[in-house]
Design a protein that fits this description.
201 residues; Rossmann fold; binds S-adenosylmethionine; 7 helices; alpha/beta
Length: 201
């Protein structure tokens, strides 16, 4: 009876460190596709709590990282998390819709979004807006979550949700002239994660 809580704590610690290790591996895989350079102009759409923005800031030391989110609550959380990089002028976090970005044409070298495409009512229209602000030769990387997580997102989110497959994203990028387009996948602790990567022509 006395030992049980200790064993539970130990199991909890092991579980947490396994989760952290899995998350670390997944983040390394995610950044592997966008090859962030110190001088890059980078945009993340739908950053949630802003952990990837924080990681990206470690590589982008001379350029700028911009985060765009439609949720005011997420903007607040990510702004707090990234206060240092923001006050150093290396990061900008704004509340906006991916369909209407307040940036000029050909502005960004790398654009990425993790687990966000499902909330876009018209995939091609939103990708078209992203296409507009990516420089020629720039990269877009759109990550799709494991199916088990999507079922959860579908249950708990309000508003539009479409269960896009990697092929739907490939078709949208093809229509807009991205070339080449590559689909990568990896096994995470929650299932298969896909990434569709396209190069702006
Ligand atoms: C499932 S969460 C993913 C958060 C984070 N990328 C992650 O993987 O942990 C989807 C996020 O996309 C944001 N989002 C949805 N539609 C958006 C849009 N049109 N423009 C910008 N952000 C959007 C939501 O507010 C939400 O924070």
């Amino acid at each position: 009876m006395i030992r049980k809580p200790r064993r539970m704590n130990l199991l909890k610690q092991i579980f947490q460190s396994q989760e952290q290790e899995a998350r670390r591996k997944l983040m390394a895989w995610i950044f592997g596709h966008i090859d962030l350079r110190p001088e890059d102009q980078v945009l993340e759409i739908g950053f949630g709590l802003g952990a990837l923005l924080q990681m990206a800031a470690k590589n982008v030391t001379q350029g700028k990282i911009v985060g765009v989110e439609i949720s005011a609550a997420m903007v607040k959380a990510a702004t707090e998390l990234n206060a240092k990089a923001i006050s150093a002028g290396r990061m900008e976090i704004i509340e906006a819709d991916a369909n209407n970005l307040p940036y000029e044409n050909d502005h960004f070298d790398k654009v990425f979004a993790l687990n966000v495409v499902y909330f876009w009512t018209n995939l091609t229209k939103t990708v078209n807006e992203l296409c507009r602000i990516i420089k020629p030769g720039g990269i877009i990387a759109l990550y799709l979550a494991p199916r088990i997580l999507l079922e959860d997102m579908k249950k708990y989110r309000f508003g539009h949700f479409a269960m896009h497959e990697p092929d739907d994203v490939v078709k949208a990028l093809q229509q807009l002239g991205f070339n080449p387009i590559v689909v990568e996948q990896t096994e995470s602790h929650k299932g298969t994660v896909h990434c569709v990567i396209g190069v702006q022509t």
